[in-house]
Amino acid sequence: MRRTDKYRFWAVLAGLVVLQFSLRTRLGDDRTAPDFMLLALLIYAIRAPAGRGAAAGFLVGLLRDALAPASFGAGALAHTIVGYLAARSKAVFFAENLFVNAWMFFAGTWVRNCLVALLSGQLRGGLLGWELLVWSPVQSLTTALVGVLVLWVFGRQLAIRMSDA
Fold first, then answer.
1. CA torsion, points 71, 114, 138, 50, in degrees to nearest 10?
2. Sequential pLDDT tens for the chain (165 residues)
């Protein structure tokens, strides 16, 4: 590993955060647009120890909750759980496989959306069903597709182990 690889890793994650605030609003409905910040969290957490993945998830969740304070705390808890589970998943799955990463991006987005919908208490009845069974899988799919594209384009920069960083 070259010394500049870890800086490239952080540059890719920062680029995803910038895309969250610049490009995501132009991609249509928030329910279907890919979540670049969650993608950055998952890319980091898959390669980090469980504690750091959970802490990163908590920080991302606080930032998201600050932008949408109607359900403050639900996003922080959901992102913390997703960050922890993504970090722990590398003990079970081979995290360098593109298909496994795509599945983890899909599952992480869907679990986060489900947790936020259930914990916030803002959706009930049919709206909750639509969120869990229609909109969350669609957003999970778009996030996973963007994640695969990011890994395909920046794969070498993202393949480093966080313990080496």
1. 100
2. 566 667 888 999 999 999 998 988 888 888 889 999 999 999 999 889 999 999 999 999 999 888 877 778 899 999 999 999 999 987 777 667 888 889 999 999 999 999 998 888 777 788 888 888 898 999 999 999 999 999 988 877 776 444 443
User: Are the CB atoms for 9 and 157 separated by under 8 Å?
Assistant: yes
Q: How far apart are the first and last CA of the chain?
A: 9
- CB burial of 1-40 (b: ≥16 within 10 Å; e: otherwise) equals eeeeeeeebeebbeebbebbeeeeeeeeeeeebbbbbbbb
Residue owning tokens 């639509």: 130
